[in-house]
Amino acid sequence: xxxxxxxxxxxxxxxxxxxxxxxxxxxxxxxxxxxxxxxxxxxxxxxxxxxxxxxxxxxxxxxxxxxxxxxxxxxxxxxxxxxxxxxxxxxxxxxxxxxxxxxxxxxxxxxxxxxxxxxxxxxxxxxxxxxxxxxxxxxxxxxxxxxxxxxxxxxxxxxxxxxxxxxxxxxxxxxxxxxxxxxxxxxxxxxxxxxxxxxxxxxxxxxxxxxxxxxxxxxxxxxxxxxxxxxxxxxxxxxxxxxxxxxxxxxxxxxxxxxxxxxxxxxxxxx
Length: 271
Prior knowledge:
The protein has 6 helices and 12 strands. By secondary structure, it is of the alpha+beta class.
């Protein structure tokens, strides 16, 4: 150990420039690690990524969970949003300003879908009522198109995607639906859930509390994976997360008995 220390000391004395360069490189490497972006997800892991950034003095656009990687709260609930657009039915979203997060900005191949591929020439066009077949592409999304984990075997790709304009969805009447409006597509089968979503009962919204306030509405595919919505044997619409621990009690508070309303009613005569 003493010999090693002497050798290191000798190197510092004899080659100070080399040591300085070594220290600079180490500092640059450390800075690169520290500067790495923090990325978490808003609703469904792998499909709703958001990068943490500064939006004000000591304020981030989101706070990410160290445990699950999910967003815990939003410093700016409207970051990256756009108007929901025209909806065919008057509902809760028509009472205030409704915005959604653009999905097309997050889909890597969206800009070339319908141009480089599915352009009417390549691959060969198919009819909308063509029988289901195995896919030779998009295996990362749908490993087996003949065993699509959605609809219990009753649907396949062209029940949702337009046969000619593949970067659009299609409803039961043959009208095209924008990728940023998947709720209109899902509503053609899931009518009851769609009605609850429209009235603000199902799903998630963030923003202002007031009925007439501005809110960001989370659309169906932000929480549910449309290509694997059955989640195997669980037949569940989304993968659950292990909940965070309960918040730390405020200073001076020893327990949370004040939240046990049943005990209060028994002790206070029902008040």
